[in-house]
Amino acid sequence: MSEFALGAKDGLTVAVKDCIDIEGMVTRCGSRALTHSAPATSNAEIVTRLLSAGCRIVGKTKMHELAFGMTGVNHFEGTPRNPSFPQLIPGGSSSGSASAVAAGLVDFAIGTDTGGSIRQPAICCGVIGFKPTFGRISRKGALPAQSSLDCIGPFARNISMIERAMHVLDPGFQTAMLDAPLRIGRLQLDGSIEPGMAKAMLAVEAPRGGVIEVIELPLLDAAFKAAIAIIGRETLAANVSLLKQPDLLGEDVRNRLEAARNITSTDIAEAEEVRARFTAEVEALLERVDMLLTPVLPVPPPLLAEASEPAKVLTLTRYLRPFNLSGHPALVLPTTTSDGLPSGIQLVAAKGADARLLAAARRLIETNPIFQTKARPDEGMRR
């Protein structure tokens, strides 16, 4: 994290991912190719909101280059350390934001999530990560400037701080209280998830009076593939000029951008058709349950030494990326496996039901012992 200080001396401390503009600073997006870009001429809208709310921005965080990777490994700027699991990847692309929160350096941090880039590093580092409803938080002043998938959202160590962050990021946000028992739809699993990574989801019990029913998402894997195609096309469109100087790009990102040239208009049309069908599938389920409950990761995060092995990282966002495609709000709560590896659950709610989703997460934390050592709901976080 590059350290500096903006804002009130006694405000909540915040770190901001370096794909978000802060006036007078170069928005490098973790890339050597953008090092000599002109400094931002104004603050991103959410930076203005943070400062207006009395927050103290204490640094910009490192990230996976161009927000186009899942490991958080960055050979140009250096890879943020995973404070909770030092031998493992910090996750990407909002690696530095997750790391700063896990290390206790800030009260909350801001990341972006285009395909799991808040939720996956949150679990890797053992903190809470929230992707709001698509379009709820202004992306003005964030890169890429255009995206049909990307959301800005917070990391924190407890739900109360996530809610406080949302009050700042979204002036219309109002903390919710649950007024009825929860109806939860738990995803039916197949054999592609490691048993240890499924245990957290299977251990969740509904709070008193609530019910859990098993649900299916037949289009989940098609949605994952569709989101891969769309993020590839949109990231290439935003960064195609950087391929004129390929030596300035990290090998993994350069290869992904080059591969994105092979995504055809037909591929995108088919992906958009899947988007419509998957969104309808999710919304139909959310008419009969309050939220969906899924695992976060199908396999444990890889070791740093394994980060360049595609087989170790390709499936990490299987349960995350589809909800970028559909635009639904999604929250992850961290746990650990019996072997001490990072794991957790994901909760997904109806569009616009962000506050109720956070209230439901609070209730689950309070009533399920698997969370109470990792995500206590009202732990004091002022520094």
From TrEMBL:
Extent of the signal sequence: none
Ranges where the Amidase domain occurs: 11-358
Cited Pfam families: Amidase
Entry-linked Gene3D superfamilies: Amidase signature (AS) domain
InterPro entries noted in UniProt: Amidase (IPR000120), Amidase_CS (IPR020556), Amidase_dom (IPR023631), AS_sf (IPR036928)
SUPFAM superfamilies listed in its UniProt record: Amidase signature (AS) enzymes (SSF75304)
Reported function: Hydrolyzes indole-3-acetamide (IAM) into indole-3-acetic acid (IAA).
Family classification: Belongs to the amidase family.
This protein's name: Indoleacetamide hydrolase
